[in-house]
TrEMBL record:
Zn(2+) binds at residues 165, 245, 261. This is Glycerol-1-phosphate dehydrogenase [NAD(P)+]. Its cofactor is Zn(2+). The gene is egsA. Belongs to the glycerol-1-phosphate dehydrogenase family.
Length: 344
């Protein structure tokens, strides 16, 4: 099991980055991977923090979370003899830094500027490779530094998406248990219990998740940490990724303008909880209270793509057995999507 050594959550945590780096004795050459917008939000501040302590810093602005981008960052790391990498920004920047650091065999720090998914802590990296966007094994961050002030200022849509990614653990664990019973798939009670408990705590706290509130950010970030730890305990994304994620990955392939990962996973959880015969209304109501999308319209995706993604989801990870089994028929998909109100 690989877990982060330090996890800092609170106000002005960006000011602690250099303390964490010297405490962990990470070395003198640092490479920051960040986004266009997040460079100005936090990337430059982190660079200045590190330079004040004599560390040589280079900033790389990455666009896509592709394998080419990872190889590009690895080339820069080789050229500047990087001792450690920092992912400063959203999911794509953190995943590129995470996989590049893993393959360059140096430590990596995760510094999220939004609490939009559980990749901020996990030992998984979702890198697009040959059209696939399912996660691959990487190293867990040596440290996670979540500045709740910065994250609270991010568009609330991102925090709501993070809630969707956490609530998706509900159906991910049900799928994992089903696969264990039917196919004797390796199963960790502890990872499953942690992932389920995390989702249930968030569902119960739904009405405390409000815009611009650091207390809301703390609730979501701690839940994302728990989800990431559950994946590290399991050694896979199983505790946090089941049929609802396959639905989201299918939408990424099919929809002209996919929504945020956590938004798609939240709606996938409503649909798959219905298929499990569970309390899908509880899922829908929690997402609605939080302000996350619960319909195709709110997702900004046409009904036809929702239905097509439902019918194709089981093909996304054929080796990962879920409630979708060998696939749902188009007419059954219509029943699920209409009954749950995801399509009108
Ligand atoms: N590794 C994992 O375990 C894991 C888990 C879930 C998702 N993912 C991956 O993460 C990616 C999704 O990440 P995401 O949902 O953050 O989307 P994203 O990376 O596309 O970022 C969304 C947007 O948020 C903006 N943003 C970030 N912080 C901001 C801030 N403070 N203020 C204003 N704007 C800000 C970014 O500039 C970006 O335009 C996908 O590639 C997904 O596959 C990985
Ligand atoms: O393995 P996947 O399906 O990419 O899932 C990883 C992460 O999104 C779980 O929240
Ligand atoms: Zn996810």
């Amino acid at each position: 099991m690989q877990l982060p050594r330090d996890v800092l959550v609170g106000s002005d945590m960006l000011g602690k980055v250099s303390d964490v780096c010297s405490d962990l004795q990470l070395g003198r050459n640092a490479l920051i991977v960040t986004g266009q917008k997040t460079r100005d939000i936090a990337g430059i501040k982190v660079a200045e923090e590190l330079e004040e302590t004599g560390i040589n810093v280079q900033i790389h602005v990455s666009g896509s979370a592709s394998m080419e981008e990872v190889e590009n960052v690895m080339e820069i790391a080789r050229e500047m003899d990087t001792d450690f990498l920092l992912g400063v920004g959203s999911g794509k920047s953190i995943d590129v830094a995470k996989l590049a650091a893993t393959r360059h065999n140096v430590p990596f720090l995760s510094i999220p500027t939004a609490a939009s998914h559980d990749g901020i802590v996990s030992s998984r990296a979702s890198i697009t490779h040959n059209g696939e966007t399912t996660s691959i094994q990487a190293s867990a961050p040596m440290a996670v530094i979540a500045d709740t002030e910065v994250i609270a200022k991010a568009p609330f849509r991102l925090l709501a998406a993070g809630c969707g990614d956490i609530i998706s653990n509900c159906t991910a664990v049900l799928d994992w248990q089903l696969a264990h019973r039917l196919q004797n798939v390796a199963f960790s009670e502890y990872a499953a219990a942690l992932a389920s408990m995390t989702a249930n705590i968030l569902i119960e706290s739904a009405d405390s998740i409000k815009p611009d509130l650091e207390s809301s950010v703390r609730i979501v970030v701690k839940a994302l940490v728990s989800s990431g730890v559950a994946m590290s305990i399991a050694g896979s994304s199983r505790p946090a990724s089941g049929s609802e994620h396959m639905f989201s990955h299918a939408l990424n392939r099919i929809a002209p303008n996919p929504a945020l990962h956590g938004e798609q996973c939240g709606i996938g959880t409503i649909l798959m909880m219905y298929l499990h015969g569970g309390d899908w209304k509880e899922i829908r109501d929690a997402l609605r209270i939080i302000g996350a999308p619960t319909t195709a319209h709110e997702l900004g995706i046409e009904d036809k793509y929702i239905l097509q993604a439902l019918v194709e989801s089981h093909k996304i990870r054929p080796e990962r057995y879920t409630i979708l089994g060998t696939g749902i028929t188009p007419d059954a998909a219509e029943v699920v999507a209409r009954t749950t109100g995801v399509i009108s």
